[in-house]
Amino acid sequence: MTHFFSAYNRGPELLTAGATVIVGATDNISLGVLRYFHERGIRVPDDISVAGFGGYDVGAVVYPALTSVYFDYELVGMKTAQCMLDAIAGATSHLGGLPLHFLERESVRRVGAPAPAGSASCTALV
Q1: What is the Cβ-side half-sphere exposure of residue 102, based on CA atoms within 13 angstroms?
Q2: Distances (CA, A) of 99 to 47, 58, 72, 75, 107
Q3: 31 within 8 A of 66, measured Cβ to Cβ
Q4: Which end of the chain, N or C, is more open, meaning fewer C-beta atoms within 10 Å of its C-beta?
Q5: Cβ of 37: how many Cβ atoms within 10 Å?
């Protein structure tokens, strides 16, 4: 929850950046941003888009549902553990390609849709 509250508390900074989209490093960060915007009447995605990374289940039940990139943390953990075991045994290995899935939900305005007047064409990372 720390990331949620940190992102929520940085809401004023995000608004003054003039971005058209906020992309959080995790879904928890993006959920904090969504909450901050909701409490201030900022309409997501009409006024600003918000996306996250992780694909957490909670992102599907909040409103608007959070657009995210699904990342299989369990698979990464297993592959990382195998790499460590290989290294201990003196073998060389790598993680290889990891599947990512784009979860298009409701929190991002359609690409090509007009941005709100006065907004900058940039991405703010939390």
Answers
A1: 4
A2: 31, 20, 7, 9, 22
A3: yes
A4: N
A5: 21
